[in-house]
Amino acid sequence: MAPTFSTSDSLYEFVVKEGNGVKGLVDSGLSEVPERYVQPEEKRINKLRTRKHNVPPIDLSKLKGPDHKKVVDEIVRAAETTGFFQVVNHGVPLELLESLKDSSHRFFNLSPKEKSLFCPGVSPSTKVKYATSFAPEKETTLEWRDSISLGYTTDQDALQYWPNQCKGAALDYLKSASKLVRDILEVLIESLEVKVEESIVDIHSGMKVVKMNYYPSCPNPDLTVGVGPHSDVGAITVLLQDDIGGLYVKLDEDNNNNNNNNQKEWLEIPPIPGALVINIGDTIEILSNGKYKSAEHAVRTSSKSRVSVALFNFPKPTLKIGPLEELVKKDGVARYRRVLFQDYMNNFFTNTHHGKESSLDFAKST
Ligand code: OGA
Ligand code: NI
Q1: I need a labelling partner for 7 at 20 to 30 A (CA). Which of 109, 136, 264, 364 fits?
Q2: Torsion 112-222-11-146 (CA) sign
Q3: For residue range 238-272, what is the model confidence (pLDDT) as tens digits?
Q4: Across-strand partners of 267?
Q5: What GO molecular function annotation could you give as one example from this UniProt entry (predicted)?
């Protein structure tokens, strides 16, 4: 029988504190979403006002070959406009992508009790965190998502502390996808045409986290969000999505053709079998002094459950991030100030999701 929650607090207790997650709520039987999940109008993605992002995926294998320049142009163009693109022939084996999705389902299909062993406070490692929504203790309205974050330190720690259901595939993904992360970051930085230290790519992507997202089937996709509007704070993110769809990117003002409409437009990033989604994070927008755009994105829920697996590539917390000095000279203006990445992350993780400004404003020059 469906549980009845007499107050919003008892729902919070069940979903967040007891570690049942949204999945626990759905599994207990639900014909409509509880009030606590009903988003205000401005946070919802109105499907009628969306378009498909029909740009063909970029063939990464051609980066080394006669078409090098063309592929570089495609990557740079995407980074300067939407901040989102998809890649194929990316070097991550397709069987690995399948086993990643399977292992993600395996983890979220565990009982709430088993998953709760990875809740903050009891998890065997501070780097491994099973959670629901984004910042439930601060959010008035909760997001329709459960997740597990797997922070990487060493192989040994990963094999010891990551959940058995997904550690093998997650670690292989991290290793394999890190190569394409490097290639893409090199292209982006070289195209800035300024002198940089050789280590620049590594120091801006040296902290890695695999995050598995689970969006349970939702009875009211129009009223809820899986993830609210945000940009990722790291350098770039690699994302594997399954075939359900629901990932949207918001067009920047400059790129919005829809001038007679003040509302920014949402573009759907459609699932493409075998492809990986790449999105630019705040760190690269800041480093490039605003030339590359970190992408504001969000996820709509669906009547079917969906999984996705992100590889976040962050700078180390002790790094001061900021626009490249030579670029600032060339541009005649510093659009961002230099900030300690730890402070940047603290600001992001103590806020709720409310657009890319909720993170980037922290580093804006005043
Ligand atoms: C994220 C995210 C998108 C998705 O985890 O930061 O934006 O499709 N995920 O799950
Ligand atoms: Ni994101």
Answers
A1: 109
A2: positive
A3: 999 999 999 999 986 655 555 445 567 899 999 99
A4: 51, 249
A5: dioxygenase activity
Q: How far is it, in rounded angstroms, from Cα 201 to Cα 213?
A: 27
What three-state secondary structure class fits 32?
coil
Q: Helix-strand-coil percent breakdown of the chain, rounded to 5?
A: 35, 20, 45
Span from the CA of 297 to the centroid of ligand 2 (angstroms): 6
Q: How far is CA 74 from CA 50, 227, 250, 357, in A?
A: 23, 28, 19, 26
Q: What is the pTM of this model?
A: 0.95
**Cα-based distances in Å from 180 to 106, 170, 198, 220:** 27, 16, 17, 37
Between CA 212 and CA 105 the distance in angstroms is: 9
Q: What is the 3-state secondary structure (H, E, C) of 221-234?
A: CCCCCCEEEECCCC
Specify which residues 146 forms β-bridges with.
Answer: 132, 214
Q: Which two tokens stand for residue 208?
A: 């890695």
d(CA 62, CA 60): 5
User: Is the CB of 297 inside a 6 Å radius of any atom of ligand 1?
Assistant: yes
249 contacts 82 by C-beta, under 8 angstroms: yes
Task: Count the residues in the chain.
Answer: 366
The domains of the chain are located at: 23-29+37-318
pLDDT tens per residue across span 210-219: 999 999 999 9
**Ligand 1 binding pocket mutation candidate from 84, 237, 248 (most atoms within 8 A of CB):** 237
What confidence score (pLDDT) does residue 203 get? 95
The second-level CATH assignment, the architecture, of 23-29+37-318 is Sandwich (2.60)
SS3 252: coil
Determine the atom of ligand 1 nearest the C-alpha atom of 247.
Answer: 8
Closest atom of ligand 1 to 306 CA is 10
CB 144 within 8 A of CB 37: yes
SS3 99: helix
